């Protein structure tokens, strides 16, 4: 017998027949994790547009690759068949809060043109968390957050970026503790760059997920995951959430990120490091 990853003949026969699984309509909102039934392509919605007289949805997979698909039936969301529809027009924005998610006083101004300095983080989840809490502040300052994709080639990234006066580089590293692999890589990279226009800081957590206060997930502390198990999937298993595929990981992170309302929901070990990086790259007296 062969395994059917989609269940028993979801699309075969007369789908209108009573008792069969029916596709439900779902708006293709940005960030929604979707799987295309025909090709198996899985990714997050990055945009919907009209092309050639039809609507298409662009899905970005975990490697950053993007493919376009015709909007309509033939998709799965969390294992359930859906008919993707164009998202509704945006509703008027609510009144701006007096403070941002980071606790800063909200400034009534549009985003600045990007400055030369940058903040680099290890991966997409780090970037999404920084955006949720500090995004308003960074837009006012004109600071862009870029993906580092790990620290193995940090020395090459520094050389490629070309830090200097007015072009500072701040880097946030996961699990930066004394004696770790990350610690050795950072020390080696900084040894090749003697200037003071690069600042690398880190938090002690295995992954940025762990910087979310465990109380937001109903725990008193984050669980210890055996080394034999992929850490993120182990966390999702402890939560009782689907955890077998990369799509499950993406959906799980979306749920965890959804519990973060402001800086108060994050651990101080992360808060202090991000604030330090923002101060470093926006220092008006530098350059």
Strand and helix map with partners:
Blueprint: E1 24-27, E2 33-36, E3 42-51, E4 54-60, E5 66-70, E6 75-77, E7 80-85, E8 118-121, H1 124-141, E9 144-147, H2 154-161, E10 169-173, H3 181-191, E11 198-202, H4 231-239, H5 246-258, H6 268-281
Please give a structural write-up.
With 287 residues, the protein is an alpha/beta fold. Among the domains are: 24-85, SH3 type barrels; 118-212 and 260-281, Rossmann fold, CATH 3.40.50. The protein has helices spanning 124-141, 154-161, 181-191, 231-239, 246-258, 268-281, and strands spanning 24-27, 33-36, 42-51, 54-60, 66-70, 75-77, 80-85, 118-121, 144-147, 169-173, 198-202. The strands form 2 sheets. The protein has a 7-stranded mixed β-sheet with strand order 1-7-6-2-3-4-5. A 4-stranded parallel β-sheet has the order 9-8-10-11, sandwiched between helices. A hairpin with a 2-residue loop joins strand 3 and strand 4. The radius of gyration is 22 Å and the shape is globular. Mean pLDDT is 84; it is low at 1-20.
Helix content: 25-40%
The CATH architecture name of the domain at 118-212 and 260-281 reads 3-Layer(aba) Sandwich
Structural class: alpha/beta
What is the CA-CA span between the terminal residues?
A: 67 Å
Mean pLDDT: 84
- Briefly note the CATH topology name of the domain at 118-212 and 260-281: Rossmann fold
Order of secondary-structure elements: EEEEEEEEHEHEHEHHH
Radius of gyration: 22 Å
Strand % is: 15-25%
Number of strands: 11
Which word captures the global form? globular
Uncertain ranges = 1-20
**Spatial strand order of the main sheet:** 1-7-6-2-3-4-5
């Amino acid at each position: 017998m062969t395994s059917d990853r989609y269940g028993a003949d979801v699309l075969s026969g007369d789908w209108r027949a009573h008792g069969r699984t029916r596709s439900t309509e779902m708006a293709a909102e940005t960030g929604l994790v979707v799987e295309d039934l025909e090709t198996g392509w899985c990714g997050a919605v990055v945009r919907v547009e009209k092309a050639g007289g039809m609507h298409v949805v662009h899905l970005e997979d975990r490697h950053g690759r993007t493919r376009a698909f015709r909007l309509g039936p033939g998709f799965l969301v969390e294992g359930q068949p859906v008919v993707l529809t164009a998202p509704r027009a945006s509703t008027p924005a609510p009144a701006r809060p007096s403070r941002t998610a980071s606790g800063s006083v909200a400034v009534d101004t549009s985003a600045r043109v990007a400055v030369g300095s940058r903040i680099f983080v290890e991966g997409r989840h780090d970037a999404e968390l920084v955006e949720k809490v500090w995004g308003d502040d960074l837009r006012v300052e004109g600071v862009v957050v870029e993906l580092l994709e790990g620290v193995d080639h940090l020395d090459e990234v520094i050389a490629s970026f070309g830090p200097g006066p007015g072009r500072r580089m701040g880097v946030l590293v996961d699990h930066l503790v004394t004696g770790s692999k990350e610690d050795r890589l950072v020390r080696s990279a900084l040894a090749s760059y003697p200037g003071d226009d690069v600042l690398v800081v880190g938090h002690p957590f295995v992954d940025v997920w762990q910087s979310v206060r465990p109380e937001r997930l109903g725990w008193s502390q984050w669980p210890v995951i055996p080394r034999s198990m992929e850490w993120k999937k182990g966390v999702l298993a402890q939560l009782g959430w689907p955890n077998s595929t990369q799509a499950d990981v993406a959906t799980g992170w979306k749920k965890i990120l959804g519990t973060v309302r402001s800086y108060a929901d994050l651990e101080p070990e992360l808060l202090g490091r991000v604030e330090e990086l923002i101060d470093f790259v926006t220092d008006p007296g530098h350059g």
